[in-house]
Amino acid sequence: MAKQIWDTLIQGALVFDGRGTAPQQIDIAVKDGSIVAKGSVLAPELAGKVIDGTGQWLMPGLLDIHTHLDLEVDLDPGLPEAVRHGTTTVLVGNCSLGTCFGTQRSGDQDPIVDCFTRVENIPKKVLSKCVEAVTWNDTGEYMDHFADMPLGPNVAAFVPHSMLRVEVMGLEASISRAPTEAELDRMCELLEKALDEGYMGLSTDGLPFHYLSNDPNTDKRIPTQFASYKEMKRLLQVVRDKEKVWQTTPIIENRLLAFKYFALTSGRLHGKPLKTSALAAVDFAELAGKRNPFLAFAGLMNSKFFNGNIHFQALGTNFRVWSDGIVSPLFEEMPSTCKLIAREYDDREGRLALMNDPAWVEEFRADWHHGRRGFNWATIKTKLGAPDSLVIRDLRRMVFDGAPVADWDGDSFQQVFDRVARYQQGDANQARSEAEKQAFEAFPRPIGDDADFMIHLLRTYDKSFRFWVDQANVGNERTLEMLLHKDALPGFNDSGAHITNMAFFDGNLGSLKRAQEVDLATVSRMVQRLTSEPATFFGLDVGTLEIGAQADMVLIDPEALATYECDPNRQLVHRDLFDHAQMVNRSDGVVTRVMIKGEDAWVGEGFTETLGQQTLGRALRAA
């Protein structure tokens, strides 16, 4: 009888090694959590367990490079909603937010809750539960604590700039003044210490609709946005010197200023290149058919002349965002609806009082029609492809999904608006049911324009109506082009954030599906873009199937992938973990097996007992 020398042997699969080479049908053997042998025919009698991979694709575990799972990982360290889609490594600490400095609570200030609530649209009761799980006090303890939990996927972290400012200055000072020289020195010291501990780099944020949620600061943005160019340049010099990564979002309200900051990637301008990962390489609906301005700028910065190293994160499917009334990341961009969102989540009376204020109504109407009506500079810029706002306000593209009247589900707002108008003109047959008739009767007469229609919905139903819009990548006409662009990198998934507004846990599967529609060579390139390429960029030792590599592997059924679509497989489910609803994806049947460090975490259409009970992944420390 042959002596067992391997724990597991996977036979017969078409193997994509993560390096972009042509796939091969070979066997792979695993021992003690590492890949130890590869070959055309490996002896099954030498393995304790043999897995038949015939007809399937085998590839390295996928990286999710843009998540906000910082909070969830300490409540449910298996991170099942990520793992089920083939993700074996997640990056946290994005967009200047994170938990690596501990709770940072001071008096009645709770910075993690105050920052995450509106930026990532996570209710305070959910966040408070997450913060209670925090047991560490500094960046070193944070990295170490992962070894003591049943971690599912590997975790790598950025130092979040908002929390760094809070740690040194306190919350109030971080949003009211510049740091002293001593404070800036201290920030640099803490950043350098964290980078030496294995953090990937520094994350910042420039999006103008990221506000705090604590009184009296609901009209103030998160701390990172109070930093001067001098402060950013000083901190990023630490990152540059350590050859780590800057993760950021654009200052979209001032494009020239945004490009000035992005130009910090340039080696010619600043001594040596700064690795930069930014948002976003998507085909915005409001700019459809026009060249993405960020990719155009990246091409310039990455040229031999400027010697930069910047890429923009791309999304593997259409960017569909749901809203609960105005509770949505999109409506933070409009000043009038931003005021509504600033009210406490359950303060319906406060929102209604505001909406009944004539001054607010006038402001809302101006916001709603800005760049869409009249002949003015705002509408000219919209026609030229440089609108002031990317908020979708076209009723034809806003679709009910969780409507207060069942008859409206699946209809666009425009369809319902038109039926209300015809009903008011005397066509009683426009009402499909008694419930719809009652709803139609409640509309003001005459109905007015699309702004009046939206105001009525908000006044009448508050947060109890849901709808979606495709904010970008409509019809996925240019999605693959973005994913494969030399100055982009797949992974704009936002996993774990906006828990009732979006779900792209399966974003990497969308990228693979787009590639599969072309040929296997494109699939091989896409696998590389989802595994070894980001791992190399962020300095992480995962992402390949080389001998000696940690055995993080995924088996995918290509036939199931070919028929899979993201949109029909999103669900709004109640998660006991949060005692709250969350949008998730269900790709069951596409990913047939997920192994982390050689152990099965997902098999067939279910999780194994190992996930969440046994330590599989580890804290990845960036080289």
Strand content: 15-25%
Q: Could you say what the CATH architecture of the largest domain is?
A: Alpha-Beta Barrel
- End-to-end distance: 44 Å
Task: Please mark out the parts with pLDDT under 50 across 5 or more consecutive residues, or reply none.
Answer: none
Helix proportion: 25-40%
What's the alpha carbon Rg, rounded to whole Å? 25 Å
CATH topology of the largest domain: TIM Barrel
Q: Main sheet, how many strands, which sense, barrel?
A: 7 strands, mixed
CATH superfamily of the largest domain: Metal-dependent hydrolases
- Helix- and strand-based class? alpha/beta
Total strands: 25
Number of helices: 23
Keywords:
623 residues; alpha/beta; TIM Barrel; 23 helices; 25 strands; globular
What does the secondary structure layout of this molecule look like, with pairings?
Layout: E1 6-11, E2 14-15, E3 24-25, E4 27-31, E5 34-39, E6 47-52, E7 57-60, E8 62-64, H1 80-83, E9 87-92, H2 111-119, H3 124-131, H4 139-145, E10 154-157, E11 159-160, H5 161-169, H6 171-174, H7 181-196, E12 201-203, H8 229-241, E13 245-248, H9 255-262, H10 267-270, E14 275-281, H11 293-301, E15 309-314, E16 319-324, H12 335-342, H13 348-355, H14 358-369, H15 377-383, E17 399-400, H16 413-424, H17 434-442, H18 450-461, E18 466-472, H19 479-484, E19 488-490, H20 507-516, H21 520-530, H22 532-538, E20 553-556, H23 558-563, E21 570-575, E22 580-585, E23 591-596, E24 599-603, E25 606-607
Parallel strand pairs: 1-6, 2-7, 8-9, 9-10, 11-12, 12-13, 13-14, 14-15, 15-19
Antiparallel strand pairs: 1-4, 2-3, 4-5, 7-20, 16-18, 17-18, 20-23, 21-22, 23-24, 24-25
